[in-house]
Specification:
The complex is a heterodimer. Chain A is of the alpha/beta class. Helices cover 31% and strands 17% of the residues of chain A. Chain A contains 15 helices and 19 strands. Chain A has helices at residues 7-13, 40-49, 76-92, 107-114, 145-154, 179-190, 205-208, 212-220, 236-242, 252-262, 309-318, 344-354, 372-380, 383-390, 439-448; strands at residues 16-18, 25-28, 31-34, 59-62, 95-97, 122-125, 139-142, 156-159, 163-170, 198-203, 229-231, 274-279, 286-288, 296-298, 333-336, 364-367, 393-394, 415-418, 433-436. Chain A has a 5-stranded parallel β-sheet. In chain A, strands 17-16-15-18-19 form a 5-stranded parallel β-sheet. In chain A, β1 (16-18) and β2 form a beta hairpin. In chain A, α12 (344-354) crosses α14 (383-390) and α12 runs parallel beside α15. By secondary structure, chain B is α/β, with parallel strands linked by helices. In chain B, β2, α2 (79-87) and β3 form a beta-alpha-beta unit. The model of chain B has no long low-confidence stretch (mean pLDDT 96). The chains are: A alpha/beta, B alpha/beta. At the A-B interface, α2, α3, α5 and α10 of A face α3, α6 and α7 of B.
Chain lengths: 462, 195
């Protein structure tokens, strides 16, 4: 028997409403985030059964997947879905941040920014990247629409208890290596199904050295490694990020919360079902070459020989030949955004690379802030001007080109350096080709016209 | 949910691993606000290729999908399950499934069956050689049989019971409303609310 408990076990156990031998645990949900795509059928289900929303005060909705990020003609089918969300929120008394509201943004960006995402909570959303919120030491689960309906009706979720998995990243990250490279390195190591049935706890000095934005990037892509969720134990970095945000406790409640949050960390004697160790000092900027997020190499590598039929299919789809240096691949589109990399720190990093430079001729380049508040903050810092001066389009908040369900899509055969999370076939638009990278690599690639890092850039013209 | 007891039908071999939910139903087709009507968009991009296995008339009417490991990875969209069901599939047999996809299947009544990779391979080969091969998935006995394969499969008793009775999860949970109310009464007053 292990002595002590892990972070995920502690959070799990304090949310068990009901336990019975041979049945899934019934977990209480502290925060339910809702968006337009995975909720309409759930609200319909409530209406059909004559049920209400048990805790509208623990539910928050926004529009992100479908929203256009630039002015233009609106797709009537998307508009219908957004109207459905607005009507459902009105009918059931749920707070909604619709398009045009300063609170609107990608659901996984607004929760943390409002201080609703807090350590020790159980958070769910009908979106697989809900794992993002685990960066605060919350247990955050992506769920399907039937489960969304279940949470709306009961504020609980029946769940089989997951296994525990430690991913320890130890050592100093080399210059130019970001949180995105850490998680791409983790996924390359464990594979797309390596975390299945488990909650990953990211540990080690490299993880603790990351900002909250960086930790969110790491936890965000836990699902790409197949994990049920990803978490980081809350520490002073977490508390400093949270303090003063709108929904965070104040005064005596803040002190009480701090004491509670400090008790969440994995106990010294606790053991994990699985453990993986990664040497941070050996990590480099990663670029994906294939059609799943484990198919990556470092920027210094070449496109690998296909190891199996799946890799051969991926190379054919990506129109890449083995042996081609990654630095010689030339994208035609650059996308900086998505719930993985659209926070203020991501934009600052990209802007610091771009300042005083120009993007390569002929490139289409978008920067899409994760929320309208991130957009406003970036504008206050003058980052929008940097992006526009270098040739990027500066957009409004939304999921944008991460997934092809709004006007920001790749055309067939287009090749994109993208800070998003999935390089699946057609993910960014039918026939589009995606290379996953960090914001600094995306920015440097935009300037060079081929993949590269900020270190590859020529000195700025004075 | 309709009760599920025994599925008997022909199968179609989709010999690919890591089939993600963006392939099962691409995002551009997720804008419907109903649960129905997703079948025509199943594997939308792949079906544009005339040689794709689902376009092969020999497999028309198949109710069992045979697939590679980690089926259903990626997005949590339950629309992927609805598209498979709307097309006529009642079960998917694969060496492994992604967690959220498997959960979604059980909510909707599509049966995800994990078998050893060698047996999935054997079924694929048998079905490719003779598309009239029938496969039986029996929830009562927890066995899959067809061609030379006769395997037990693992499913927890609670989920099996729910599927066989066609029970609504929400209805089951609401039987424990007292426990939910008791839990709520003990929640910290400083916990955040969205209002």
């Amino acid at each position: 028997m292990s002595q002590g408990k892990t972070l995920s076990e502690k959070v799990w156990e304090r949310h068990v409403v009901r336990w019975a031998e041979g049945e899934p645990d019934l977990l209480y949900v502290d925060l339910h985030l809702v968006h337009e795509v995975t909720s309409p059928q759930a609200f319909d289900g409530l209406r059909l059964a004559g049920r209400g929303v048990r805790r509208p005060d623990l539910t928050l909705a926004t529009m992100d997947h479908n929203v256009p990020t630039a002015p233009g003609p609106e797709d009537p089918v998307s508009v219908r879905q957004m109207h459905a969300l607005a009507n459902n929120c009105g009918e059931f008394g749920i707070t909604l941040f619709p398009t045009g509201h300063i609170g609107q943004g990608i659901v996984h960006v607004i929760g943390p920014q409002m201080g609703l995402t807090q350590p020790g909570l159980v958070i769910v959303c009908g979106d697989s990247h809900t794992s993002t919120h685990g960066a605060f030491g919350a247990l955050a689960l992506g769920i399907g629409t039937s489960e969304v309906e279940h949470v709306l009706a009961t504020q609980t979720l029946p769940q089989k208890r997951p296994g525990t998995m430690a991913v320890t990243v130890e050592g100093d990250l080399p210059d130019g290596v970001t949180a995105k490279d850490v998680i791409l390195g983790v996924i390359a190591r464990i594979g797309t199904n390596g975390g299945a049935g488990h909650v990953i706890e990211y540990r080690g000095s490299a993880i603790l050295s990351l900002s909250m934005e960086g930790r969110m990037t790491v936890c965000n892509m836990s699902i790409e490694g197949g994990a049920r969720a990803g978490m980081v134990a809350p520490d002073d970095t977490t508390f400093a990020y949270l303090e003063g945000r709108p929904h965070v406790p104040k005064g005596n409640d803040w002190e009480r919360a701090l004491e509670d949050w400090r008790s969440l960390a994995t106990d010294a004697g606790a053991t994990f079902d699985r453990e993986v160790e990664i040497d941070a000092t050996a990590l480099k900027p990663h670029v994906s070459w294939g059609t799943n997020p484990s198919q990556t190499v470092t920027i210094d590598d070449v496109v690998p020989e296909p190891a199996d039929e799946s890799a051969a299919r991926a190379l054919a789809y990506m129109d890449l030949a083995p042996g081609k240096p990654i630095r010689e691949i030339r994208p035609d589109t650059i996308f900086i955004g998505s719930c993985t990399n659209s926070r203020i720190e991501d934009l600052r990093l990209a802007a610091s690379v771009l300042e005083g430079r120009r993007i390569a001729p002929g490139l289409r380049a978008l920067v899409v802030p994760g929320s309208m508040l991130v957009r406003r903050q970036a504008e206050e810092e003058g980052l929008d001007k940097v992006f526009v001066d270098t040739g990027f389009e500066w957009r409004s908040a939304g999921c944008s080109m991460c997934l092809g369900m709004n006007p920001d899509i790749l055309g067939p055969g287009d090749r994109c350096a993208s800070t998003s999370n999935r390089n699946f076939e057609g993910r960014q638009g039918p026939g589009g080709r995606t290379h996953l990278v960090s914001p600094p690599v995306a920015a440097a690639t935009a300037v060079l016209g081929h993949f590269g890092t900020p270190a590859d850039l020529p000195p700025r013209e004075v | 949910m309709e009760p599920v007891h025994r599925i008997l039908g022909r199968a179609v071999p989709l010999d690919r691993a890591d089939v993600d939910t963006d392939q099962i139903v691409p995002a551009e087709h997720l804008k419907r606000i109903e649960r129905t009507g997703f079948g025509p968009f199943l594997f939308d991009a792949w079906r544009r290729d005339p040689s794709f296995v689902l376009n092969d008339p020999r497999f028309e009417g198949a109710t069992v999908l045979l697939a590679g490991a980690n089926f259903g990875c990626g997005s949590s969209r339950e629309h992927a399950v609805w598209a498979l069901e709307d097309h006529g599939f009642r079960a998917v047999i694969a060496p492994s499934f992604a967690d959220i996809f498997r959960n979604n299947c059980f909510k909707s009544g599509l049966l995800p069956v994990e078998l050893p990779a060698t047996d999935v391979r054997a079924l694929m080969e048998a079905v490719a050689a003779d598309p009239s091969t029938e496969i039986t998935i029996d929830l009562e006995t927890k066995r899959v049989s067809g061609a030379a394969v006769d395997d037990p499969f693992v499913i927890d008793d609670f989920t099996r019971w729910r599927l066989m009775e066609g029970l609504d999860d929400i209805g089951l949970t609401l039987r424990h409303e007292d426990a939910i109310a008791a839990y709520e009464a003990g929640r910290g007053t400083w916990l955040p609310s969205s209002g």
